[in-house]
Amino acid sequence: MSSVTIKTPEEIEKMRVAGRLAASVLDMIEPHVQAGITTEELDSICHRFIVDELQVVPAPLNYRGFPKSICTSINNVVCHGIPGSRKLKTGDIINIDITVIKDGFHGDTSRMFAVGKTSIRAERLCRVTHESMMKGIETIKAGSTLGDLGHAVQKHAESHGFSVVREYCGHGIGKGFHEEPHVLHYGKPNTGMQLLEGMTITVEPMVNSGKKETRMQADRWTVVTSDGSLSAQWEHTVLVTETGCEILTVSPKTGQP
Ligand code: MF3
Ligand code: CO
Ligand code: CO
Questions:
Q1: What's the gap in Å between 34 CA and the centre of ligand 2?
Q2: Is position 253 within any domain?
Q3: Cβ of 204 below 6 Å from ligand 1
C-alpha cells in the first residue's frame, strides 16, 4: 500500500541534500547542451558525474525497465525520452530530467535548454511553462489544495494559448520515487487533497504549444504530442511548510528556481 508521507525534520534535511544534488547535475550539464552532441553523450556525462563525483544513485536507471540514467525530451517529445544517437541541432529545445537517490531519499528536477538560437514561439513556450510551474508552486502552503495548484498552472498556460498535458503529473516524493499524491497540473480551486506541512511533492507541468493530447511511441517510454507540436516541461521538488513552501531543487550555481 502506498500513501502520503509526512517527512520528519531529519528526513527533510535528507530531501534538501538530494534536491540540491539533483539540481547540481543540471548546472553541470548546461554547457554541454550544444549542437552536435548526442543525447546518449549527455546521459553518459551525467551518469559519470552522478556516480563518480556525487556518489549517488541515478534513479531512472532500470526503474521499471528504463534503460538510461536521465530523460532527454526534444521538441515534440513531452517526457521520458530515452537518450540515444540523436544529435542536437541549432533551434532544438530539450528537457533534461534528473532524479538522484542520496541516503535513501529522492531529488527530482528538470529544466528546458535551448540549443543555440530558437524560434520566438519555442522560447515563449519554455518561458510560459516555467512561469506556470512557479504560479503553481506559489499556491503551496499547509492547507492549500492540489486543485489550487493545478488551477494556477492551467490558467497561466492556457491564457497564453498553450495546453496542459493530462496523462502525466507530479507526485509525492521521498524514499519512493513516485509516492502519493498525484499532483495534477489542471483543476479547480478549493478541490482535491489539502497539503500538510512536511509533505514533499513535485510540480512538473508539461505544456504543449498545440493540442493537449499525447501518444506513446513503440519503445513504451517516449511520449510525444499527437499533433507534432512543441512541448516543454520544468520540474521542482518542493517541501510544504506552514506558511508556504521551500523549493528543494533551486540551482546551487545561480540560486534561481
Ligand atoms: N523523472 C521523471 C519524473 O519526473 C520520471 C522518469 S521515470 C523514468 O517523475 F523511468 F523514465 F526515468
Ligand atoms: Co517527477
Ligand atoms: Co523528473
A1: 25
A2: no
A3: yes
Whether 43 is in the pocket of ligand 1, judged by its Cβ within 6 Å, is: no
Task: Categorize the per-residue pLDDT at 160 as very low, low, confident or very high, splitting at 50, 70 and 90.
Answer: very high
Please give the tally of structural domains in the chain.
Answer: 1
pLDDT digits (tens, 9 = 90+) for 176-185: 999 999 999 9
Q: Does residue 60 line the site of ligand 1, with CB under 6 A?
A: yes
Q: Is residue 255 part of a domain?
A: no
Rounded to 10°, the helix 146-159/120-138 angle is 160
Ligand 1 atom nearest residue 63's Cα:
10
Taking the CA atoms of residue 158, residue 163, residue 166 and residue 170 in that order, the dihedral angle to the nearest 10 degrees is -70
CA torsion sign, 79 to 182 to 110 to 186?
positive
Rounded to whole angstroms, how far apart are CA atoms 4 and 171? Answer: 10
- Using alpha carbons, list the distances in angstroms from residue 87 to 36, 37, 72, 83, 166: 5, 5, 12, 10, 29
Tell how far the Cα of 237 is from the centroid of ligand 3, in angstroms: 9
Cell 543525447 sits on residue: 39
pLDDT 10s digits, 43-55: 999 999 999 999 9
User: The domain that contains 16 carries what CATH number?
Assistant: 3.90.230.10
Q: CA nearest 144: which of 238, 233, 234?
A: 238
Helix, strand, coil shares, percent, the chain, to 5: 30, 25, 45
Q: How far is residue 142's CA from residue 162's CA, in Å, rounded to a whole number?
A: 30
Which ligand 1 atom is nearest residue 59's CA?
A: 12
